[in-house]
Amino acid sequence: MVLFNYITWAPDPEIFALGPLSVRYYGLFFATAFLLGYYIVDKMFRRENASEEWLDKLFVYVMVATIVGARLGHVIFYGWDYYSQNPADILKVWQGGLASHGGAFGILFAIWLYSKKVTRRSMLWTMDKLVIPVALAAVFIRLGNLMNSEIVGSPTELPWGFIFLKAHGIENPELPRHPSQLYEAMSYLITFVVLMYMYWKKNAARRPGLIFGVFLIGIFATRFFIEFLKEDQEAFEASMSLNMGQILSIPFVVLAIYLIYRALTRPEVDVSIPGNKRK
User: Fold this and answer.
1) Pairing of strands 7-9, 162-164
2) pTM, entire model
3) What is the distance between the alpha carbons of residues 243 and 235, in angstroms, rounded to a whole number?
4) 142 among the known binding-site residues?
5) pLDDT tens for residues 228-278?
6) CA 154/CA 169 separation, integer angstroms
7) By the 8 A CB rule, do 251 and 270 touch?
8) How far apart are the first and last CA of the chain?
9) Separation of alpha carbons 149 and 104, rounded Å
10) For the chain, what are the domain ranges?
11) 3-state secondary structure of 95
12) C-alpha to C-alpha distance for 80 and 254, rounded to whole angstroms
């Protein structure tokens, strides 16, 4: 029995517009992810007696790093030929073009700086908490990609294939394709649930780097394999045995293996902040 007979997908990515101001699903999901992330990290900071000032500064660092890093990642890794000739267009973020790997590099740099300037604690103390809402944010971002009909999958005969009528830059748009955005969103949601369980039920934060390492596996190892079911994002990837997304995922997977090994072979530590009495 066939449960689906393909899904025709052609939503308007714009929810509504007020004059020149446009509200799109992608932006709404992005903002929702930050609000939920603030709430989740606040709960964890309260549990470990970290100050509210630290939390507020953390989200300023992360918000700026995510947007700047994701934009520069797209510019450098996917569109350098164009942007090197049109540098003014780098600032036109509203036209699209954000790369998750660039966002990841940006966040790593921001947390290194945040650890030096604000908490004066190990980066892992922050990362083991931050990556939990980041995994949830990745779910929302891929749902935003779905609403934009971008980052589409390769053709498939599976009954849940999507026909992306509004996708740009693909051949034969009438063919059903893998909903790779949903594949990633579901894998990231599973990662988020696992990380929440590790933190709240298993006290995994007592092993610095363990939650961060599992996050990297859940995001970038799955991303590596799902890339085989995607269309190339840029023309130059057609001649590559591994595309740019897969190549950029490998260092993160290697880092994950190191972090998990390190965490499991060292004794547990107390991660609470002494002296603070936050309510």
Assistant:
1) parallel
2) 0.88
3) 10
4) yes
5) 999 887 777 777 889 888 999 999 999 999 999 999 999 999 888 775 555
6) 13
7) no
8) 56
9) 23
10) 24-151+163-264
11) helix
12) 26
